[in-house]
Write a structure and sequence with these properties.
The complex is a heterodimer of chains A (538) and B (197). In chain A, strands 2-3-4-6-5-11 form a six-stranded mixed beta sheet, sandwiched between helices. A five-stranded mixed beta sheet of chain A has the order 8-10-9-12-13, with helices on both faces. In chain A, strands 14-15-16-18-17 form a five-stranded parallel beta sheet, sandwiched between helices. Chain A has 19 helices and 18 strands. Chain A is globular, with a radius of gyration of 25 Å. Chain A folds into three domains: 223 residues, Rossmann fold (3-Layer(aba) Sandwich); 115 residues, 3-Layer(aba) Sandwich (Rossmann fold), CATH 3.40.50; 171 residues, Thiamin diphosphate (ThDP)-binding fold, Pyr/PP domains (Rossmann fold). Chain B has one domain: Pyruvate-ferredoxin oxidoreductase, PFOR, domain III (Pyruvate-ferredoxin Oxidoreductase, domain 3, 3-Layer(aba) Sandwich), CATH 3.40.920. Classes of the chains: A alpha/beta (538), B alpha/beta (197).
Chain lengths: 538, 197
């Protein structure tokens, strides 16, 4: 039986994976990937089958947990935002070396335009250099269909598969036709070649040669993939190569059908024969892809001359930001002047309309921390505050303007340490509870071992706030973690971040800033959003 | 049929519930639908926008191209004006006139309203007031949906059924409040302008 249902791209993939015999979902929350594990957590099938669906401490632990499940022959997924791939990279790249036993899909949700991220890195490059096949759905239906296909591909080729989606697919809803009959889960079974899982140099050299040889097989899979389609066209002045959701924007420009031949790519390695087939019949090529010019760079060999290749590198399409139907129409206008009407004559925005940046919620404990911190800083000539990734990054904006950096998960503590090592006083780190257990604990151990003169503020809201309130791994044990790492209890303080504690918190900060050693202040107050939800549930 | 709708507001105002209801109504009517929204950082009191596309034919892009939106539905007057480049030449703006001031440089209210009122095809009124009168303040998003209902290519009853389905698990009282707010919004908009022919 098939049913039509309304799903986000994230949910469509999750549903597809669940019903293809999934045994474990692993993830750390990150926009725009969070809804994948949330969907799995809320599915009755998860409870019925005992499918793993707890949040992991970070993307690397999630990746390794899933790899362990694959080792045992069961199907697993790992989901993360694109920058999470950097955290998981060690495990991800080496999972190409071990290969997969049970089907293993790694989902990277890229965020071009940086709606909620610090960069626009394109995860397809990871798949490419790890020599891992990559799937890139263009619709919610494909996201659903490709989950099962991805598990089969992974098991057929004995390798993990990278599943690359972008914000506008992850967070866009559409009608998806789904199967109601779940496939059985895999039985526990071990890898046929156990040596491959022990990456000592002698084993790795053997495996590396095999992995390189297997590229022929994974490329052939892409050549024959039902998701890589070449549509013929009558106008050979241009051949279009589209990948992922870029296909939708081209189709939007040509509601009656596109007259240019078009190759849609949704599976990598790049199917070179299909690309050559298109190139042979066209006078020029335009590559339209979401993210960085991945396919385009592959087409532009340093020394090959002849065929004109348009794309992001010749300025035909914008080099940054996500694609839009308008940007695609603008580029195609070069070959199809009749598209001009799609790219001009729009209403203008009145200049009195001003940007409305996001802000910390009213009643949020981070506000109280920043207000006390700002008052404490007034007593010092040059205090530097190293921030981190989470709602409290908004402390950079008015009215607080309180932080001097925000780089990557956990960097507040380690950068404050580097600054203190350089002679900065006071040197302050501010980090949230979930970010602390994600990547802050190891940096704190460095500071503890050297008793670095700096102050770490852990602004604990008892949840992973920015992504909508997922469980945080350190809840209820932050002080124990610090003590366990060897923190001096005399300089480990806990305070409730409430307006009535403003003066006490300020004084505590001032005292610890003056101390020539390491201090940790845990300021605690439940996130106002999750508190409201908890109150409703009673 | 085809309706390309831009939903606008400030993070936390409840525009996504409008999208959920229209989505449910479209699914029931066996229409194609795409609805792109933004989660994460921008939901924290920043400007938020969702593209909702309904059609009897398959829909290509998740994003609405500029100049193609049939209607901008907004819970906030400045947010309604932010997305003007997306509005089709004969498109409609349906917005609440209640400003949400959480930034220091919010424009002068009279000038904002003058810009809005000088345009053709605008339905604008105090939706908070209508919500309070007909149900509760929290239902102003349903007043907005009601005010826009005549300009969306779906039968009004189908939208109302969507409200009943979406709020059903939250209890009868909430369903009735939301339906009452929806009907009040619809009635008010009909008073203010001639419905579509």
């Amino acid at each position: 039986m098939k049913t039509k249902t309304l799903l986000l791209g994230d949910e469509a993939f999750a549903r597809g994976a669940l019903y293809s015999g999934l045994s474990g979902g692993y993830a750390y929350p990150g926009t725009p990937s969070t809804e994948i594990l949330e969907y799995i957590q809320s599915s009755p099938l998860t409870a019925r089958r005992g499918i793993h669906s707890h949040w992991s401490s970070n993307e690397k632990t999630a990746m390794e947990e899933a790899l362990g499940m694959s080792f045992c022959g069961k199907r697993a997924i790992v989901a993360m935002k694109h920058v999470g791939m950097n955290v998981a990279a060690d495990a991800f790249v080496n999972s190409a070396m071990t290969g997969a036993n049970g089907g293993l899909i790694v989902v990277a949700a890229d965020d071009p335009s940086m709606h909620s991220s610090q960069n626009e890195q394109d995860s397809r490059f990871y798949a490419n250099f790890a020599m891992i096949p990559c799937l890139e759905p263009s619709t919610q239906q494909e996201a659903y269909d490709m989950a099962e296909y991805g598990f089969e591909l992974s098991e057929r080729c004995h390798i993990p598969v990278l599943f690359r989606i972008v914000t506008r697919l992850a967070h866009s809803r559409a009608v998806v036709e789904v199967d109601d009959e779940p496939r059985p889960q895999n039985e526990l079974h071990y890898p046929e070649n156990p040596r491959q899982w022990v990456l000592m140099p002698g084993n790795s050299r053997v495996r590396n040669r095999q992995l390189i040889k297997d590229q022929e097989m994974t490329e052939r899979e892409a050549e024959d993939s039902p998701f890589n389609r070449l549509t013929p066209g009558t106008d050979r002045t241009l051949g279009i190569i589209v990948s992922g959701i870029a296909a939708n924007y081209v189709n939007e420009c040509f509601p009656e059908g596109c007259s240019f031949p078009m190759l849609k790519i949704s599976q990598y390695p790049l199917p070179r024969t299909r690309v050559a087939e298109l190139a042979d019949c066209c006078e020029a090529i335009m590559v339209i892809e979401e993210g960085q010019p991945f396919i385009e760079e592959k087409l532009r060999g340093l020394l090959d001359r002849g065929l004109t290749v348009h794309g992001k590198l010749d300025g035909c399409l914008p080099r940054d930001g996500e694609l839009t139907p308008d940007a695609v129409a603008q580029a195609l206008k070069l070959y199809c002047p009749s598209l001009a009407h799609l790219s001009e004559g729009f209403n203008a925005v009145n200049e009195m309309v001003v940007p409305r940046p996001p802000a910390l919620c009213q009643g949020c404990g981070h506000r109280d921390v920043y207000s006390a911190l700002n008052d404490a800083m007034k007593e010092f000539s040059d205090c530097k505050v190293f921030g981190d990734i989470g709602c409290y990054t908004l402390g950079w904006l008015a009215p607080f303007n309180a932080i001097d950096s925000c780089v990557d998960m956990g960097a507040s503590i380690t950068m404050a340490k580097g600054a203190a090592d350089a002679g900065q006083r006071p040197s302050v780190a501010i980090i949230g509870d979930s970010t602390f257990t994600h990547s802050g604990m190891t940096g704190l151990l460095d500071a503890i071992n050297e008793n670095t003169p700096m102050t770490v503020i852990i602004s604990d809201n008892l949840t992973t706030g920015m992504t909508g309130g997922q469980d945080s791994q350190g809840t209820g044990k932050l002080e124990e973690i610090c003590l366990g790492l060897g923190m001096d209890p005399k300089h480990l303080h806990t305070i409730d971040s409430l307006p009535k504690n403003h003066d006490a918190m300020k004084q505590l900060f001032v005292d610890e800033f003056r101390y020539e050693g390491l201090s940790v202040v845990v300021s605690r107050r439940e996130c106002i959003q999750t508190a409201r939800r908890h109150a409703k549930k009673g | 049929m085809k309706s390309d709708i831009i939903l606008a507001g400030v993070g936390g105002q409840g525009i996504l519930s409008i999208a959920t209801i229209l989505g449910s109504a479209a699914l029931e009517a066996d229409l194609y639908l795409k609805q792109a929204e933004v989660h994460g950082m921008s939901q924290r009191g920043g400007d938020v926008m969702s593209c909702l596309r309904l059609s009897s034919k398959p829909i290509a892009s998740d994003l609405i191209p500029k100049g193609k939106a049939d209607i901008i539905i907004s819970l906030e007057p400045m947010e309604a004006l932010r997305y003007l480049p997306f509005l089709a030449p004969q498109g409609w703006i349906v917005t609440s006139t209640v400003p949400f001031v959480n930034i220091p440089n919010y424009p002068e209210y009279e000038a904002l309203m003058a810009d809005l009122q000088a345009r053709d095809n605008v339905v604008a009124f105090d939706m908070d007031a209508v919500a309070k009168e007909s149900a509760t303040l929290r239902s102003s998003n349903m007043v907005l949906l009601g005010a826009a209902a005549d300009r969306i290519d779906l039968p009004v009853e189908k939208i109302e059924e969507g409200i009943r389905r979406v709020f059903a698990r939250k209890g009868e009282k909430l369903v009735e409040q939301n339906v009452a707010a929806f009907r009040a919004g619809l009635a008010r908009a009909r008073e203010l302008s001639n419905p579509k022919s």
